Amino acid sequence: xxxxxxxxxxxxxxxxRISGSKNGALPILLASMLxxxxxxxxxxxxLKDIQTTLRLLELFGCEASRSKDRVTVKxxxxxxxxxxxxxxxxxxxxxxxxxxxxxxxxxAKVAMPxxxxxxxxxxxxxxxxxxxxGANIDLESGYIHARCxxxxxxxxxxDFPTVGGTENLLMAAVLAQGETTLENAAxxxxxxxxxxxxxQCGAKISGHGTGSIKITGVDNLGASDYTIMPDRxxxxxxxxxxxxxxxxxxxxxxxxxxxxxxxxxxxxxGVDIEITGNDQIRVKQSSPLYCIxxxxxxxxxxxxxxxxxxxxxxxxxxxxxxxxxxxFENRFMHAHELMRLGANITLSGExxxxxxxxxxxxxxxxxxxxxxxxxxxxAGLIAExxxxxxxxxHLDRGYERMEEKLSQVGANISRTQEE
Length: 419
Ligand code: UD1
Known about the structure:
Blueprint: E1 2-7, E2 13-17, H1 22-31, E3 38-42, H2 48-59, E4 63-67, E5 70-74, E6 82-83, H3 85-88, H4 98-105, E7 107-111, H5 124-132, E8 136-140, E9 143-147, E10 155-157, H6 163-173, E11 179-183, H7 189-200, E12 204-206, E13 212-216, E14 224-227, H8 232-244, E15 248-252, H9 260-268, E16 273-277, E17 280-284, E18 294-295, H10 307-315, E19 320-324, H11 333-340, E20 344-348, E21 351-355, E22 364-366, H12 370-382, E23 386-390, H13 393-398, H14 402-408, E24 412-417
Parallel strand pairs: 2-15, 3-14, 6-7, 10-11, 18-19, 22-23
Antiparallel strand pairs: 1-23, 1-24, 3-5, 4-5, 7-9, 8-9, 11-13, 12-13, 15-17, 16-17, 19-21, 20-21
Helix pairs in contact: 1-2, 1-7, 4-6, 5-6, 6-7, 8-12, 10-12, 11-12
Bound molecules: uridine-diphosphate-N-acetylglucosamine.
Residues 23, 26, 92-93, 119-126, 160, 162-165, 190, 303-305, 327-328 line the site of uridine-diphosphate-N-acetylglucosamine.
C-alpha cells in the first residue's frame, strides 16, 4: 500500500490545471450504456473510481478504451445485466448502473452497495422511484434484482434531493414511455452535466439545475462526443492549499460559475480569491484567515465534499467556528487525525467546534475516506516537520496525480510504499 510523506512549510506558487470532474464522469460513463453506438467522452480524469467504472462497463459487455483523457464506450446491442459485489463494494456509485441497465434490458442485478465509512448511505429513494416507473424489485442474497417491461414515465417526489437517486432516475427515464417529472430533485452541477450529455444524444430533458426536472421519454439515443465539466471540489481543494501556504496559485480550467457557494465561504474565511477569467481563479494569499460557521447543504449550499478541507483551514485560522455536517452522518473522521497534528476540535453529533491554533506539527496519520485524505494532505503542507499519510488509496479514488500537481507548484511531497 502507498503512503504520502509531506514536509510542511513550503509556499505554493505557479499554475495547476483542474482535471475533469469525478462525480460528473461516473454517471456519464454509465449513461453511455443507454446508447448502442460509440460515445466519445473527453476530460475523463485518470482515477481509481474511473478504472472501476470502465471495468464495470466491460463486464456489462461494453467496449471501452482510453487514450489520455479521452474514453470511448460502445455499448452495442447485447449487454449483460449484472454488477458483481467485488466491484460494487469498492465504489458506491456503481449503483448508478441500475437505471441504464433496466432501461436498456428490462433487468438489472446489482450488488447492494452496503454501508461505507461515511454513513449508512441507503439507496431506498433510487428503488422507490424505479418502482414508481414500473420496476419490480427484489432484494435477494445481497443483490438488488430489478425487472420491468418498458419503464413508464411517472411523477416522483424525492424525500431529499439525493444526487445519485436523481441521476439514476434521470437515466431510467430518458428511454421510458411517456413523461417523468422528478420533484425535489438534486441541483448539483454534475446532474446538469449528465442531462446536457443525454440531451446531446437526443434525450428530452428540461429543468435540470432546478428542483423540478421533466423528462419526455424517447425511443432511442444516438452517438455523441462530449467533454466532462472540470472538478469543482478539486479546484476548491487547491484554493485551500494556496491559502494555507500563503501561496500564489492560478487554477486553470476551474468551473467558476458552479463554485459560487465554495468561493463565497472561502472568501468569508479570509481567502484572497480573484476570478481572473471565465475558467480561471487566482489565490494570492496575504490576509489572515478567520474561523467562521459553515453548514453543509445540498447544492447550491456549501458542499459536504469541501467540509474536511475547510476544517483544515479553520484549524490554523484566528478565533473559533462551528462546522455542521447535515448530509452524511459520521463524516468527521478526519477531525481525530487533525487532532493528532495538534488541531483543537471538539465533536458533538453532527457539529464540530474548531478553535484555531498557531501551528500544526507533523505526525503519522491515517486517511479514512476521500475528502478526509485531502484535508490531511492540506494539513501536512503546513505542519511543522514531516506528516506521513497512510491508506491513500482513498485519495487515488478522487484526485488525479495530486502529489505531482502539488510538487510542481513547490510542495515537498512524495509517495512511497508502506512497509
Ligand atoms: C454524491 C457524490 C458525493 C457527495 C454526495 C452529496 C457522486 C459519485 N458522489 O453521493 O461525492 O458527497 O453526492 O453531495 O456523485 N440517501 C438516502 N437514500 C437514498 C439516497 C441517499 O437516505 O436513496 C441519503 C444518503 O445516505 C446521504 C444523503 O442522502 O445521507 C445524500 O446522499 P446522495 O445525495 O445520494 O449522495 P451520493 O449520490 O451517494
